[in-house]
Design goal:
Layout lengths: L15 E8 L2 H13 L4 E8 L2 E11 L2 H15 L4 E4 L3
Antiparallel strand pairs: 1-3, 1-4, 2-3
């Protein structure tokens, strides 16, 4: 059975993402996103600024159940040669 939807102190639903990688090239990020999409993972890229440089983070999710990401994390890490991490999704 699905878990009860958790909400934070502001009443906002708690959701989770799996950060698959952080790369310096938008092209590499998009290629990874396409590979994830090809194995039926809903993935997206978000650009973040670090000083005067841009990084591109590739994520799977968001999911309301952290366990859903925990169950796929080992397979994603092995298949894509990454060390992913689960983080709270903040829109």
């Amino acid at each position: 059975a699905p878990q009860k939807l958790a909400v934070d102190s502001d009443g906002v639903p708690v959701a989770w993402i799996l950060q698959v990688a952080s790369v310096s090239s938008a092209e590499n990020a998009d290629q990874l996103r396409q590979r994830l999409l090809s194995v039926d993972q809903k993935a997206y890229v978000k650009r973040v600024k670090r000083g005067n440089k841009s990084l591109y983070r590739v994520y799977i999710g968001p999911k309301f159940e952290r366990a859903a990401l925990e169950s796929i994390q080992p397979r994603i890490d092995a298949e894509f040669g990454v060390k992913s991490m689960i983080a709270r999704y903040v829109p």
